[in-house]
Amino acid sequence: MTSPFSFKPLQLPSSLEPLRLEARAFLAEAAKDWSGWKVGHSWTGFDRDFSREVGKRGWIGMTWPKAYGGHERSGLERYVVVEEMLAVGAPLGAHWFGDRQSGPLLLRLGTEAQRQRFLPLIARGEASFCIGLSEPDSGSDLASLRSRATRVEGGWRLNGRKVWTTNAHLCDFMIGLFRSGGQADTEKHKGLSQFLIDMSASGIEVRPIHDLTGEAHFNEVTFDNVFVPDDMLVGREGDGWAQASGELAFERSQPDRYMSAFPLLPLTIDALREAGTDDRLASRRLGEAVAELAVLREMSLSIVGQLQDGHSPAKEAALVKDLGNLHEQRMPDLVRELLDCPSSIVAADRLSELQAFLVQNVPSFSLRGGTREILRGIIAKGLGLK
Amino acid sequence: MSNSEMNISEMLAEQVQRLFSARIDRDTWVHAEDGELDSDLWQEIEAMGITLALSDENAGGAGLNWADSEPVLRLCGVHAAPVPIGETTIAAWALSRAGLEVPEGVLAISGEIFQLDAQGRLQGQDAQLSWLPVAGHVLVAALREGVTHLCLVSADAGRQQAIDTLDRLPCASMELENVIPLQTAEAPFLDELGLRPHLAALRSMQMAGALARVLDLCVEYANTRVQFDKPIGKFQAIQQMVAELASQAAAAQVAGLYAARQVDAGNASYGAAVAKSLVGRAATRAAAIAHQVFGAIGVTDEHSLHYYTRRLWQWRSEGGSEHWWSERIGRKVLAKDGAHLWQQLTAPIGA
């Protein structure tokens, strides 16, 4: 019996160290005034000025061709920058979705005109993208999407509703999945297409959805006869399902799937040291968290390596997200256990704010990007459970 | 790793897989749990040179590093091989690295630290030394004026008392009092924990193998066991549990290999700590899930599942429990300020 999993190790070469230190120095300066509340948002946090600064340093679209505003650097260089950003809870939301999903999608499947128009904007931190997948009746069951794209002269008319669209109220563009043919009931995976949508187009209404934290990162986006010209179809008509699934496999293994709560740990260590807490429980629990992080990072790196080699380890990526989400969801409770944190939110106290934000935010971690149960279904099928 | 090393590593793993598939079954386990070493099997293992995988080529070994040997050590867990291949392999590796001769036969290793006095006499004890009752020699790490040494002693050199363990394999306590070792050498490649990290790394790799097999057994059982007119594997509740088991098994596999790579890079204690902390907990959760999937049949003597779960429960406490290693990581982390944690996590292997 050989292993049911492929996790060939990938070791980051030491040549990446200068880049890591450069990113670390930039972030140490930038993060000085970030509140705990802001740090908690991290890759969903929207800060256009920060994204422009990151863009200036060449850290968006790092792997893309220079012809499109990219920097032709390696996937590993990108990995280093991304994990350094997440380690301090940098607000990546204004460029993250474009950098991680929309840009690569356009590179792979977009027309030359689409690439030339959008990629340089994303790389400079000037254009923010949101992802329009979920609908009121289609969350995990994306194939049941009902929002419709209807052929008209010179393009398409979009009608329907998207929900849980992160930062739709702040973004310039959406890549949305719509039913351009077939029926939701009979041809679930067929007839879905991806469109590049200008969020300022008439007929689009964005309404906030307030969440547990009292804020509204999510939105409901209504499309009422929104016109999208022909040249804003992404890839091939009817192939949207396969195109969107491909993106998800990549998304599930990235460091953001286990590092969302990481910035809590250094603060907790400092608080424990200051309190002079020297007990076995604190050491043991902290040690467990560190061991998990070390192994999750190895798993995540391995998948990056496999993707670079042209493999598509979907089952392994789902495993990493499941384990990663479990880890990051446990972190706020670990802090409660070790520090007897009160439930009060002390303004300007980073640990208190970050803790409070995360307690209320972690339930979403195992929902976004595929719910835990859906992922486990993928894993079970991948193992041959019938 | 060069291509030729890759091939030797893969070839050895294939050979071991063939040997184990042909020779290890329930009878072998029952026999071993009665306290007997299958000497025919052991001779075949020695004849194939498996236990010299890690040893220097000029000592007659294959000269593989730990990462290359990981598949073989994991296979020992996949088959719950009731033979001390890992212990003997590690002992032979350490002996050859210290410039000592590797004796034939079963070698046991102690994860405890002994004392070596000025007259070259060993003192110390190990409350639980796997395979001691059937071993010819024991390798221990001992401190002499703060310097770590390796000492090879005859297995009957000290007082030993057989003890019962969860895996029911041969095990005994050992107490050495003024024992003159057969061989002694300084071992600068070991830190203050002696051979414990290496034993912990071995157990992590074995557990990863056992978890892979337990997962395999669960998938097979879930696909064949019919309840409510369909295989239980069709029920989402079962699928969710088996997927969680798979996550634990996958993480354990990565952790075991990580420990091996850290040993190769001279940072055995950190690698072992990470692996043992994670894999010990994975074993606990995975064993619970597996027994739930199998229902009552899994706890019966006639089913093979418990041979695996008892080993998982045994191994998670050997070479330092997951709690012991976690505490050690935590203490090191708390010795420096919070900002250091990220530096530690991103440090290259071996740092």
UniProtKB/TrEMBL annotation, chain A:
<dbReference type="InterPro" id="IPR013786">
    <property type="entry name" value="AcylCoA_DH/ox_N"/>
</dbReference>
<dbReference type="Pfam" id="PF02770">
    <property type="entry name" value="Acyl-CoA_dh_M"/>
</dbReference>
<keyword id="KW-0285">Flavoprotein</keyword>
<keyword id="KW-0560">Oxidoreductase</keyword>
<feature type="domain" description="Acyl-CoA dehydrogenase/oxidase N-terminal">
    <location>
        <begin position="19"/>
        <end position="126"/>
    </location>
</feature>
<dbReference type="InterPro" id="IPR009100">
    <property type="entry name" value="AcylCoA_DH/oxidase_NM_dom_sf"/>
</dbReference>
<comment type="similarity">
    <text>Belongs to the acyl-CoA dehydrogenase family.</text>
</comment>
<dbReference type="InterPro" id="IPR006091">
    <property type="entry name" value="Acyl-CoA_Oxase/DH_mid-dom"/>
</dbReference>
<dbReference type="Pfam" id="PF02771">
    <property type="entry name" value="Acyl-CoA_dh_N"/>
</dbReference>
<dbReference type="InterPro" id="IPR006089">
    <property type="entry name" value="Acyl-CoA_DH_CS"/>
</dbReference>
<dbReference type="GO" id="GO:0050660">
    <property type="term" value="F:flavin adenine dinucleotide binding"/>
</dbReference>
<keyword id="KW-0274">FAD</keyword>
<protein>
    <recommendedName>
        <fullName>Acyl-CoA dehydrogenase</fullName>
    </recommendedName>
</protein>
<dbReference type="InterPro" id="IPR009075">
    <property type="entry name" value="AcylCo_DH/oxidase_C"/>
</dbReference>
<dbReference type="Pfam" id="PF00441">
    <property type="entry name" value="Acyl-CoA_dh_1"/>
</dbReference>
<feature type="domain" description="Acyl-CoA dehydrogenase/oxidase C-terminal">
    <location>
        <begin position="238"/>
        <end position="383"/>
    </location>
</feature>
<feature type="domain" description="Acyl-CoA oxidase/dehydrogenase middle">
    <location>
        <begin position="130"/>
        <end position="226"/>
    </location>
</feature>
<dbReference type="InterPro" id="IPR052161">
    <property type="entry name" value="Mycobact_Acyl-CoA_DH"/>
</dbReference>
<dbReference type="InterPro" id="IPR037069">
    <property type="entry name" value="AcylCoA_DH/ox_N_sf"/>
</dbReference>
<dbReference type="GO" id="GO:0003995">
    <property type="term" value="F:acyl-CoA dehydrogenase activity"/>
</dbReference>
<dbReference type="InterPro" id="IPR046373">
    <property type="entry name" value="Acyl-CoA_Oxase/DH_mid-dom_sf"/>
</dbReference>
<dbReference type="GO" id="GO:0005886">
    <property type="term" value="C:plasma membrane"/>
</dbReference>
UniProtKB/TrEMBL annotation, chain B:
<protein>
    <recommendedName>
        <fullName>Acyl-CoA dehydrogenase/oxidase C-terminal domain-containing protein</fullName>
    </recommendedName>
</protein>
<keyword id="KW-0274">FAD</keyword>
<dbReference type="InterPro" id="IPR009100">
    <property type="entry name" value="AcylCoA_DH/oxidase_NM_dom_sf"/>
</dbReference>
<keyword id="KW-0560">Oxidoreductase</keyword>
<dbReference type="GO" id="GO:0003995">
    <property type="term" value="F:acyl-CoA dehydrogenase activity"/>
</dbReference>
<keyword id="KW-0285">Flavoprotein</keyword>
<dbReference type="InterPro" id="IPR036250">
    <property type="entry name" value="AcylCo_DH-like_C"/>
</dbReference>
<dbReference type="InterPro" id="IPR009075">
    <property type="entry name" value="AcylCo_DH/oxidase_C"/>
</dbReference>
<feature type="domain" description="Acyl-CoA dehydrogenase/oxidase C-terminal">
    <location>
        <begin position="203"/>
        <end position="331"/>
    </location>
</feature>
<comment type="similarity">
    <text>Belongs to the acyl-CoA dehydrogenase family.</text>
</comment>
<dbReference type="Pfam" id="PF00441">
    <property type="entry name" value="Acyl-CoA_dh_1"/>
</dbReference>
<dbReference type="GO" id="GO:0050660">
    <property type="term" value="F:flavin adenine dinucleotide binding"/>
</dbReference>
<dbReference type="InterPro" id="IPR037069">
    <property type="entry name" value="AcylCoA_DH/ox_N_sf"/>
</dbReference>
